[in-house]
Specification:
The complex is a heterodimer of chains A (426) and B (508).
Chain A: H1 11-22, H2 25-33, E1 45-51, E2 55-60, H3 65-75, E3 79-86, E4 103-105, E5 108-113, H4 131-150, E6 157-161, E7 166-171, H5 174-177, H6 181-190, H7 212-232, H8 239-246, H9 251-263, H10 267-284, H11 291-300, H12 306-310, E8 316-317, H13 349-357, H14 363-373, H15 377-390, H16 395-424
Antiparallel strand pairs in A: 1-2, 1-3, 3-4, 3-8, 5-7, 6-7
Helix pairs in contact in A: 1-13, 4-7, 7-11, 9-10
Chain B: H1 2-18, H2 36-59, H3 65-77, H4 89-110, H5 114-134, H6 137-146, E1 152-153, H7 156-161, H8 163-169, E2 183-187, H9 192-196, E3 201-203, E4 206-210, H10 211-235, H11 237-241, H12 246-255, H13 276-282, H14 286-298, H15 303-316, H16 320-332, H17 338-352, H18 367-372, H19 385-388, H20 391-400, H21 405-416, H22 420-432, H23 444-454, H24 459-474, H25 490-507
Antiparallel strand pairs in B: 1-2, 2-4, 3-4
Helix pairs in contact in B: 2-3, 2-4, 2-5, 4-5, 4-12, 5-10, 12-25, 16-17, 20-21, 21-22
The chains are: A alpha+beta (426), B mainly alpha (508).
């Protein structure tokens, strides 16, 4: 596959092409401008760039889409991060009286990183991922998406592939952008069930009564557990991993299971034994009654980094930026197809640059569009650019992004109408 | 013509509107002129009320029957508005006005340091909680809406639909019949503590909160607002302090002690110098025991220590001659020769007894003063050990004084909760082998007097302490500050208080 042809050394050549002809500036601006409802929202937004040779620059800000384009084409950033909307233009923050320059708003964000699951996945570790452990991301997206919508009432969620080993979620509702740091931290903690680091063996403890949120999450986990944990990860198939699982059950049950497992080798049947033991515990004991649920959650439940979500001013990798190590573009994930999402099929910068030169199948269609636009010379450059990404694998991701923006646009229109109505009154 | 007649009516309407509610968030400061004497008396009354709230709060389970009864009492005595009691409208308005104004005056006095703010906020929150709980559910809803807390109760139908979810998500809901509890629908941003710990049911951005929890939320809101307001107030203090009439009073208020001051020496000469060492171990509070020990060890004490300990000794009955002898003897053992002592230190001792300078007879420091002012630094031994000592060191010291391990942990618990005077009281109980002290400790000399009582001190001393005790005992309420002298006429009482405040101020 062409995507494996990516060579980081080529970035200096590929980036200019990417930013000149492929990066979806119009949609990007449309997003961050949020319909122009709040004045200077785009202008006061902080961006940070990582340039060649790891030079990192913060407090970048732009007064318009064209300025953004020009600057990015000039600097060719290797990485782009998006920060908060501040009280003043970030690139002028040194001129502001100290204490007055404040981060005011930002999307509520979540970062799920596969390395946080290293203690429960056996197929890969560190920066590696494979199709087996990618299921963890699918589970995370399902659980968090449901909760953010149904529990917290958010509507405009953008899930993005980080480019290497995880996913990000951008909650773009106005209410979300206005949340205080304390509120963000509270939401993140509500969503956190895995507690403890290296030193902790048992990372999930459930108490009676089980909160509706946990129940809902368990429903999702239970759907994936048999295939993902028992089959793909084979957590009950090998001695080492079997011991890790048994470390999570109460002592007396552990002894019984160890005996049973001497005879019973089949992972699915082993799990049923565990479930049976748990049922027994539930009727007899007050403590430890949910250990089979705790195991499932420990192996599958989303692990998020609370620190990423807490800060209003926290910088997070931008959608559509390139991952320098893998070359992959941080593309939005269409939730309708989340089961089928394959991180290895995500286009790399080298692939889409290559596709630019290849003639596309429906070249005729492109030609007829060309004729229609001969009238408007000024727009043709713009239109050419639009057409450019359309002939690459990036197209479907930008289309999905368009749909996401269209969904938000209704709320902007309503707001703008209300604002202008107010202005007409004396 | 028509305008001028409208104006006064509008103002009184505003007042009536502001004071139409039994409870308020103190969002708007008072906008009228008041006399200095009203300014002072309102402030002092509220301070007394808050101190009562503090004392009751540590002596009783908050909001239990005893607590409620005693607080009701105090509120009535001090002429503050009572919730849930219907009174004559004019009387009601007057009392609410006093409540409003006194709150804002105390803000000025208590915004200056972290400690002061924390104390003030804690007592105001407790007072607010007591009042809020007294409102009936209709009044509660009205209060919420009038203060822009758009919390609405959910219908019986909705409650029914969400029945299961509601019972399993809130601890407060379980065990109580759903039909009997009101549930409020609150935007989740206003219930962060419950969201963070997943103790509430969330649906579409709203938290479904049982009635009991609503109080917590409202309290947190009150606390946050007050905290912000105090920070703002602190910034405008310089302007306030430039008014010479107010600055002294505000300073007094934040350092005041409203009880017996031990200024009048009752037992002069009854204590001999030879007794002091043994008395230090038996009847001195920890702060003075510490100072005495340091003096014996180092043959010296710095100014802060000399003032705190010296005045205390005066309070227990040392005469000026005895005091001079005492300090001289000890200092000479150190690096100070007799001459230097007579020149430098003797003067300040005579000063303490009012024989020098402006001849003011200084009063021994109260616990408040010791705890709040002049914190000790390296080389100092004054202050309150429960407040100023590192807990580890305090623990060691208590252990060296043969306090039992369980006693030590009880004391450390109280210290952790910042109940320094209660910790000292606990120390009293443990060292005197009594179950419960019959007094509420607020002055080191009070500690001494009570200790002598328990140990069955000399006949004379006992008689004197009886005279001292009577006004305190008549109140019969355990846990109320000393100096409840109901027989004394209000204005005289006030004058005495002001005098105490003045002398405390001058001591600093």
């Amino acid at each position: 596959m062409p995507s494996s042809d990516y060579d980081p050394a080529c970035l200096p050549d590929l980036l200019p092409l990417y930013y000149r002809r492929l990066f979806p500036f119009a949609q990007y601006y449309r997003w961050l401008n949020y319909g122009g409802v709040q004045k200077n929202y785009f202008q006061n937004r902080e961006f940070s760039f990582t340039l060649k040779d790891d030079i990192y620059v913060r407090y970048q800000s732009f007064s318009s889409q064209s300025e953004l384009e020009k600057e990015m084409q000039k600097m060719n950033p290797y990485k782009i991060d998006i920060g908060a909307v501040y009280s003043h233009r970030p690139n002028q923050h040194n001129t502001v009286k100290s204490g007055s320059f404040q981060a005011l708003e930002k999307e509520l964000v979540f970062d799920i990183d596969m390395t946080d699951y290293d203690d429960v996945r056996s197929c890969c570790s560190a920066a590696d991922i494979c199709s087996k452990c990618w299921t963890l991301m699918t589970i995370a997206i399902r659980i968090l998406d449901r909760s953010l919508r149904q529990d917290f009432g958010f509507h405009h969620l953008l899930w993005v592939y980080s480019g290497r080993r995880g996913v990000h979620c951008w909650v773009c509702d106005e209410a979300a952008r206005k949340l205080s740091a304390a509120a963000r931290s509270a939401v993140a903690e509500y969503l956190s069930l895995i507690k403890g680091g290296e030193e902790t063996v048992k990372k999930v403890v459930l108490t009676d009564p089980i909160h509706p949120f946990i129940r809902e999450s368990l429903t999702v986990v239970e759907r994936y557990f048999p295939q993902y944990a028992l089959q793909d990860q084979n957590i009950l198939g090998r001695k080492e991993s079997e011991e890790k699982v048994l470390a999570l059950v109460p002592e007396d049950v552990k002894k019984e299971l160890q005996e049973i497992f001497q005879e019973e080798r089949n992972p699915e049947r082993r799990w049923r034994h565990i479930e049976a033991q748990a049922k027994k515990k539930q009727t007899t004991a007050k403590k430890w009654q949910y250990f089979e649920k705790e195991i499932m959650l420990q192996y599958c439940y989303p692990r998020l980094d609370v620190n990423v979500s807490k800060g209003v001013n926290h910088l997070l990798k931008s959608p559509f930026s390139v991952h320098p190590k893998t070359g992959r573009i941080s593309v939005p994930i269409d939730l309708k197809d989340v089961e089928k999402f394959d991180p290895f099929a995500v286009p790399t910068i080298s692939l889409i640059c290559e596709e630019l030169d290849r003639p596309k199948a429906d070249e005729d269609e492109a030609k007829s569009e060309d004729a229609k636009e001969k009238e408007n010379e000024q727009d043709s450059a713009e239109k050419r650019k639009i057409r450019d990404y359309k002939r690459t694998s990036l197209a479907k991701y930008v289309k999905y992004f368009d749909q996401f923006l269209a969904g938000m646009a209704d709320s902007w229109k309503g707001k703008l109408r209300r604002q202008s109505d107010l202005q007409k009154e004396f | 013509m028509q305008f001028s007649s409208k104006k006064p009516r509008a103002v009184t309407d505003l007042k009536a509107e502001l004071y139409s509610q039994p409870l308020q968030f103190y969002a708007q400061p008072p906008l009228e002129n008041i006399s200095l004497s009203e300014f002072e008396s309102f402030a002092v009354d509220r301070l007394k009320l808050l101190k009562t709230v503090e004392n009751l709060g540590v002596s009783y389970v908050k909001l239990n029957d005893d607590y409620l009864k005693k607080l009701d009492n105090e509120i009535r005595t001090l002429n503050f508005p009572q919730v849930g009691v219907s009174l004559d409208a004019k009387d009601q308005t007057e009392k609410r006005r006093k409540d409003h104004i006194s709150h804002f005056i105390l803000r000025l006095a208590y915004c200056q340091t972290e400690d002061l703010r924390r104390w003030f906020i804690q007592q105001e929150v407790d007072l607010f909680k007591y009042r809020f709980k007294k409102l009936d559910s209709g009044e509660k809803l009205e209060f919420l809406h009038k203060n822009n807390l758009q919390y609405n109760t959910i219908s019986a139908e909705e409650k029914d639909n969400l029945r299961e979810k509601l019972t399993i998500s809130s601890y407060a809901a379980s065990g109580v019949k759903l039909e009997e509890q009101d549930f409020y629908k609150v935007p989740f941003q206003d219930a962060l503590d419950l969201v963070r710990t997943r103790k509430v049911y969330l649906k579409e951005g709203y938290a479904y909160i049982p009635h009991n929890e609503i109080v917590t939320i409202v309290l947190n809101d009150f606390r946050t607002r007050l905290s912000k307001a105090l920070a703002l107030t602190a910034r405008s203090l310089p302007a306030v302090h430039s008014d010479e009439r107010l600055q002294p009073l505000l300073n007094h208020l934040s350092h005041s002690y409203l009880g017996q001051d031990y200024s009048v020496q009752k037992n002069v000469g009854k204590i001999s110098l030879e007794q002091i060492d043994s008395l230090a171990g038996k009847s001195f509070p920890l702060c003075m025991r510490q100072l005495h020990q340091a003096l014996r060890d180092q043959h010296h004490l710095r100014h802060g220590g000399r003032m705190q300990y010296g005045l205390f000794l005066k309070g227990i009955g040392l005469s000026l001659e005895q005091a001079l002898q005492f300090w001289r003897m000890e200092f000479i053992r150190g690096k100070v020769d007799a001459d230097k002592f007579d020149k430098a230190y003797a003067y300040s001792i005579r000063h303490m007894f009012g024989k020098e300078g402006k001849r003011a007879d200084y009063t021994p420091y109260s616990c408040m003063k010791v705890i709040l002012s002049n914190p000790p630094s390296q080389g100092d031994y004054h202050g309150c050990p429960f407040r100023h000592s590192d807990p580890e060191l305090l623990k060691q010291k208590l252990q060296s004084y043969k306090v039992s391990p369980s006693g030590v942990s009880q004391i450390l618990e109280l210290v952790k909760g910042m109940h320094y005077q209660l910790a000292c009281q606990k120390y009293f109980e443990l060292t005197h082998n009594v179950e419960d002290t019959s007094f509420s400790l607020s002055h080191p000399n009070q500690y001494f007097t009570e200790s002598q009582k328990v140990l069955g001190g000399g006949k004379d001393v006992k008689r004197e302490t009886d005279t001292l005790q009577r006004p305190q005992e008549s109140s019969a309420a355990r846990g109320l500050t000393a100096a409840r002298e109901p027989a004394v006429d209000e204005s005289q009482h006030l004058a005495e208080i002001t005098k105490n405040l003045e002398t405390d101020f001058q001591d600093a």
